[in-house]
Amino acid sequence: MDDVVADLDKSVTEAGLPAKASVIVRAGALDLASGTGSFRVRELMDRIAATMGVYVRADVNLTDIEASCSDGTYRVTEVVDLPTVGVNTERIWLMEHFTDWLSVSLGRRGTYHRAADASQNFIARLTNEKKSSIAPIPDIIGDADRGDASAPAAEGCNPAQPGQSVRTVRPAPVTVRQIHERLDAIEYRHHLYSLALQVLAAAVSCASFTFLLGGGPIDMAAAFIGAGCGQFVRSRLNGRHMNQFFVTALAVVIAAFVSIGSLRLLGMFYPAALAHDTAYIGAILFVVPGFPLITGGLDIAKLDISSGVQRAVYFLAIITAATLAAWAVADVVHLTPGGFAEFSMNPWLRLILRFITAFGGVWGFSVLFNSPQRMACVAAVIGALADTFRLEIIDYWHTPIEAAAFLGALAAGLLASAWRIAVRHGLIEPQYGFPRITLTVPSIVIMVPGLYMYQAVYYLGQLNSGAALNWIFRAVLVVVCLPIGLALARILTDRSWRYDV
């Protein structure tokens, strides 16, 4: 630590290896804490290290990083442990901009964005919401020398128009302190949404999820109320840093009881509401950990087996806690969920409603993942198109559900890749250049077979092993097909995924 503090005001290119390693590892830890895949964390660390003339070899797991940095003469090893697992898609986006800002500030080309001024101005305008003990910063991070928030972060950088390649002329030296200032602004940035909006997002996503599973207006209303109450409890307890598995189980219990209670209350005035005994399943789907599931599958596709397995185990642990809690509620109130009742609807009306509810479901999950509204809306459009396509080919082409999940994920991946490519070629403004993972994961979370998983655990609790195995196999096949579809989309559109080099 003393070596880092001694070099805080030196140019990062002239600082010692410990100071450079502190930047590399801290950036990797922030990216990992945002919930992104380990392969992306390693890629980001490699790019930051290369700009400073350092080689880094990192082992990245679900909650820890062990990185060895070398400058050809010395070697420094750092280990970072994260206290918990979370998702913050805004931070994933900010870390891409930070990496490009650092590259351009050191006289190199940006990697994630082609526009020279995109990341420079973006990072320069970040506000400081909490000051760290390492590099206290002003309220507005501005120019490296003048503190001007509207100026480029490094003097000598020639701002280019959107879509132009990066070109720099004698950039001013960036100090280690200034780099940590930017990381401080990213790390201590407050959550974008209030508790009320998070509750609304969970309620909207679960009500939409319920319709896509075949539920009607009564089921959607019960899921809306139950999910909102469950998310309220989950947000409050997560804010107190309580155990995730306990919080998940408690939130599911509350969501299920509130959903069932609302139906019983409605049944006093409308007896037909009592027949909707599956609505409470839709109310608990806000706890589905889609990010670890998808990023784990993508890690395995990139041969990062250990991280992929850890994420898959974490996904299974959360799902087990949630489904066991839901089964306990069903056992207490003597419910036997038999699925949602079928009802007839005009095919064109169903198509439109599927698109609308898929949009709402993806938007809700994006808000829960802390996506900015522009990012959430782009993801929602992609998810609405992909999920509507998936459901339509099931209905009209009689496509197996597993194959439809694969095709839906593939469609979402291709749409997200097309969006990113359009941004890189200047067809879309640079501020819409969101990371693909922040668009694809929310768009296919609504395809995760939460209903199948619950049915499997329910029948296990009833000691009906035959039915339980049937639902387990269905769920596993769909879960496996989702990341495979996304991985194939990346292989088709990304050269770095096509070759193991």
UniProtKB/TrEMBL annotation:
What are the GO BP annotations of this UniProt entry? succinate transport
A GO cellular component annotation here is:
plasma membrane
Alphabetically sorted, this entry's keywords are: Cell membrane, Membrane, Transmembrane, Transmembrane helix
Q: Where is this protein localized, as stated in its record?
A: Cell membrane
Give me the segments passing through the membrane.
Answer: 217-233, 245-267, 279-301, 313-336, 348-369, 403-422, 434-452, 472-492
Q: Read off the Pfam families from this record.
A: ThrE, ThrE_2
Can you tell which superkingdom this protein's organism belongs to?
A: Bacteria
Where is it mostly found?
membrane
Q: Name one GO molecular function term.
A: transmembrane transporter activity
Threonine/serine exporter-like N-terminal domain ranges (all copies): 23-99, 167-330
Q: What PANTHER family is this protein classified in? A: SUCCINATE TRANSPORTER SUBUNIT YJJP-RELATED (PTHR34390:SF2), UPF0442 PROTEIN YJJB-RELATED (PTHR34390)
Tell me its family. Answer: Belongs to the ThrE exporter (TC 2.A.79) family.
The name this protein goes by in its record? Threonine/serine exporter-like N-terminal domain-containing protein
State the species of origin: Scardovia inopinata F0304
Traced from the root, the source organism's taxonomic lineage reads: Bacteria, Bacillati, Actinomycetota, Actinomycetes, Bifidobacteriales
